[in-house]
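User: My instructor asked us to take a sequence, write out its structure as tokens, and then describe one feature of it. I'm not sure where to start. Here is the sequence I was given:
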Amino acid sequence: MKNFFYIFACFSLLGCSENIQEENQESDSIPVEVESTANVSIEHADTVANEINEWNGEYVIYNGNYFSIEYPSNFIASPTQPIDNFDDYEFIATDEATFTSPDSAVEFFVYSPLWNGEPEFYLEFQENEELTFEKEVTDTNDYGLVQTIQWMTISDKANQYSRSYVSTKTESTFLVFGIKSINDTAYEKYKDAYLRFKESLEQFADA
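Assistant: Let's start with the prediction itself. The structure tokens for your sequence are:
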């Protein structure tokens, strides 16, 4: 019988050292490389503030193939199909998902397969995008596996948005977190929610 059990959350799965975890959290503090927030209209800024104020502060759980993660209750999750069941566990049959704020100012991303693989499109550059930040570290985790951690920020050439992701990869596992935002203001408003989103990840194994 197939049983689920918790492995680890976030980068603990790959045995990241404390230094790597600190570097990862520092990367979350790096402002996304976008146009000055002065270009955001007052009307839009008010809309963003109102929608944040209306949020009840609750988080809901999204269940994927072999992971679960919490996201703000007023965000829109995708995909929502196909729904599958195993015993009492109901989940969306996917290894990756996005979560978009009600004002469309930010989008969270997670890719958490059972083992290895690649996100469907997320790591690919689009014609309108350019690389604005990159950092990579390779070391050995607590299990003796070589792991590569990569931080990358990709920006729209017209300064319409910026998206940053951090990936952790070994020979047999791959984990990606990402955040896309329209400007620095949106990033800062949702940064705490994004950090909680990342920390809430629970990964499962088939035993």
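For the description part of your assignment, you could build on this observation: The radius of gyration is 17 Å. Try explaining in your own words what that tells you about the chain.
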